[in-house]
Amino acid sequence: MEELLLDLHGAVYIGGLCVVLGVCMAVFNWTFLIAGYDESEIPDRVAGRLVGLFMFGIGVVTAGYGAALTRYRLPDWTGLVLAVGVLFATGQLIYRLNTWGSEGGDRA
Predict the structure, then answer these.
(1) CA–CA separation, 39 and 20 (whole Å)
(2) Are 103 and 64 in contact (CB under 8 A)?
(3) What percent of the chain has pLDDT over 70?
(4) CA-to-CA distance for 8 and 57, rounded, in angstroms?
(5) Cα 60 from chain centroid?
(6) Helix/strand/coil for 56
(7) CA 81 from chain center: how many Å?
(8) Phi/psi zone of residue 17: left (φ > 0), alpha (ψ -120 to 50 degrees), beta?
(9) Are 51 and 16 in contact (CB under 8 A)?
(10) Highest mean predicted confidence (pLDDT) among 29-33, 54-58, 65-69
(11) In the Cβ-directed half-sphere of 75, how many Cα atoms lie within 13 Å?
(12) What is the rounded distance in angstroms from the CA atom of residue 18 to the CA atom of residue 63?
């Protein structure tokens, strides 16, 4: 049981770290944290905002999931739902980054 509690609290800590990094990317344009980012295609402001908001959202959901697991006994399939949601959000982020220039402006 102790191992399970450590893992649940770890989800809260990882979610909190993602929230902090997301704010730093979105507000302070810390684009050096984005692996493989090239400024020539997408401006710093846009990439920082898109990836920062993504990290913020994933962090909030992960921390909330970890907090819910520490308080309530959720079904086993809820972790799978979280993972699928993260995959869909990642796909949306990749699509928005790849089609940013063709959408006719900065909508970030």
Answers:
(1) 23
(2) no
(3) 86
(4) 19
(5) 8
(6) helix
(7) 15
(8) alpha
(9) no
(10) 54-58
(11) 5
(12) 9
